[in-house]
Design a protein that fits this description.
alpha+beta
Length: about 1050
Amino acid sequence: MRPSASAVESTRKGDLAMKSMANSFRRGWFFSANPGISAPMTSRSSASVWMTCMTTLLRLGRRSDGTLRASYTRPASYLRTCCLLGLTALVSAAPATAQEPEPGERSFLEQPRRLIYEGRRSGEGYFSADGASMVFQSERLAENPFYQIYLLDLLTGDTRQVSTGVGKTTCAFFHPDGSEILFASTHHDPRSLELQREELEFRASGRERRYAWDYDPEMDLYAVANDPGATPRRLTEARGYDAEASYSPDGQWIVFTSTRDGYGRPLDDGERRRLEVDPAYFGEIWIMRADGSEPQRLTHTPGYDGGPFFFADGSRIVWRRFTDDGLQADLWSMRPDGTDPRRLTDFGSMSWAPYPHPSGEYVFFASNKHGFDNFEVFIVDADGTKEPVRVTYTDGFDGLPVPSPDGHRLAWTSNRHGEQGGQIYLADWNHDGALRALALPPDRDTGPAPAPVSSTTRLEDHVSFLAGPELAGRLTGSVGELLASEYIAHQLARIGAHPLPGEDDMMFEFDFTAGARDVGSSVVVDGPLGAIEFTGADSVHALGFSDSGDVEGPAVFAGYGIRMPDSAEFGYDSYATLDVRDRIVVALRYVPEDTEGDVRATLNRYSGLRYKALTAREAGARGLLVVTGPRSPNAGKTIPMAFDTAAAGSGIPAASVGEEVALALFASTGRTLEEIQKSFDDGNPHAVGFEIPSVRIGLSTALERERRTGRNVVAALSGTAGTEASWVVLGAHYDHLGHGRGGSSLARGDEAGEVHPGADDNASGVAAVLEAARALSETDHRRPVAFAFWSGEELGVLGSSHFVDRGPIPTGRIAAYINLDMVGRVRDNRLNVQGIGSSPDWARVVEAANVPVGFDLSLQSDPYLPTDSAAFYNAGIPTANLFSGAHPDYHRPTDTAEKLDYEALGRVSRFAALLAARVAKRDGPLSFVQVERTMQRGGSRDTVRAYTGTVPDYASEVEGLLLSSVIEGGPAAAAGLRGGDMIVEFAGQAITSIYDYTYALDDVKVDVPVEVVFVRDGVRHRVMLTPGARP
């Protein structure tokens, strides 16, 4: 049976649609595809989209020659829509989680890092001949949704716009002498502004594009002088798409792609229909003089030819050619006159975007050889005699590879960062490794790695001194802190830094509470059995925030002692029907035991011990006794004295009491405490307390508080605008935990009481700021810069808070604060920049500062951080915090100097200096944004009872809870969990972040096993974990 004419036509149109879809991969056009699509899709889901489309649309088979044969069962328009949806999902919507490079990738790429951060997407980055600059295309203008051309100075990080800002642009390239920049643009089209508005409206509507790239016939070539404000000079005017252009090495010629053949001659009916559906089919390689004269066509083969570049010696041109049906593409090379065409690949896939290595030995390109939805970078020898070698191994999209002129770096476009839209990446390129992989002898030595910018000797000296045994852990108010502060001030003076204006020296003292201890508290229960006095820590123990004093009064039981504000999610008031004025309140610890989910999470926020004491005080109580009920963890035990840094008490005597005291208190009620507690444990907001019959309480709390003095060290470098200009502050805390006797130590059993050196936390940050100060002392900057070294951070950001509240620089005159906390253990070239949601200006500043340094940055918006930057953010100052990540030595005696990476620490220091310099050179301060704080679903530490022994990786932004390590002997370790595992489900709750995990902990019971689902090496596992009780 013969197919009908309509079926034949549908098949023909389907072939053209497939080819057009494939051509959208030309050199990154899919990055502008489907701008209305915003639904997150992983690479796996994009594959699913593709396979669903293909199952619906295609019947696949093989021709006799082995090539793919496809029969289409739907109209071409449907096919085009589905295919492009899948392709857009692949590149525009990146993998759900960023992935680390696999070992095979590290054979070629060293220190891969994201280069461009600003804008919706970027691509096509091409180096200048000296390797000092790059031109690229990016979507970053609010008024124009299309690509514009930008120039990036790779030495300073400065970026400027090259194109006009009107219309569409693409494919920029430097003249070999750097005098001009070549690019394609439609800005001459009078419809440009209208098209921009339409596109912006379309994207705002959330609808989806049915095409990837329209090969606009108004696209022409322009050259513009490499000077700010220069006017582009038009080189081509023939109707048709003229783009994908590059200069010859001598600058005399331009090779480019053009579809002008489809517009400049009469077409038959078939050609006209093909032009409507697939204008790229008419793309051919052309060459012309650099001034636009003498255009000559070089290729004459049916199918899309495009993306041409000269070899470095000018002897040949490489390009890619699609087959007539558009389903496959391969690399070709030819002489500049179009003769001697040679096929370099026969890969049976879509191979495109070729670019020769400067050595002429091989060519870079991208291919989906290993799966339709997975483009990777490859290399092939220049003669095409050997099988191509794979370079990248990261799922998703890696393409548009471009080597630097010296052949030692590689720029390419990728979506490996896990966000929608591709961005340009940069890595050091292993040329010798490439030659070995291609089975060719190395032609030259790549030379040693460049020396670090900062002196590793100075950095190591700083850390070794600060983390040395003589300073005994630098506890705030200790002799070790004093020695550290003097050392820091001496180092600042050596580089020419001076005290702040109006100050005699660099030291700023603040008083704080260094500790408290119970020196003889007691409680008397006077009831039906007579007056019974209880003493000793097992019976009565003052709470760390308690006032000292003697109080007496009738006993009133207030349930869990929780009063929620009127604006809270639901009502709960333990004092609603109670009169506690001039009475002693007895309240249960924690929250109602049988509550779950949102109710429990909300109650947790108001169940801290200090908050309960303040609530009782505000209700008129004279004192507070806290009982740990028999249905709660740590039943019947008093609460250990917690370190509390408040200068004064809570305004009320408060203590915890043990089981014997509780029995005496409730003896007159006729019920056991367990029965009473159970009546409150369902969370019923109408459950009411009561006056305990015939019982009076006498409470005597005796605390001894020690007051000490801490010292901040702050110095300045003047700016050209004088000290009246707003300041940039660069800071780090220098205190640590001493011998770890406070509540923050994570020392294991055999480490208890040992000195906690704090090499990474935070001698690393101090050393980096000192080196940044040295660098900034050698440059001019408009704004004055202050270098601040805080004490008291480990006790609750005491020093920085004191400076913000009472320092000599008003907060209104601080343009920005940059903090460094734990920056000495950079892994896999990854550095976290936290808190940048505090200003919309940070992304550009961070991007520019990172260009010369080359970290793979993780940008995190949340400014509410447990470090000194929070004190500045709360005062309305834009902040950024640098953090290299958590590790198993955190807050342990094993955080020692020899474990730091001093070469990477030098780069962190340079990055910090560049950040400060960029802000200091700005005409105006950074804009400040108040970030809405996500509800903290878990309570304070004293309300979270369950203990699992997990140490989260707080720097990660993956979906799940990534474990940095587990505590030896803890519940997680006993269950078989270990560092590197990703918890995705805990006690039946999906875990997407640390907040989910904290929330889930609120719901579990101590000693009741729960199921944990985690991912290790890509495989899901299920184990049972039994939480323990937190002391």
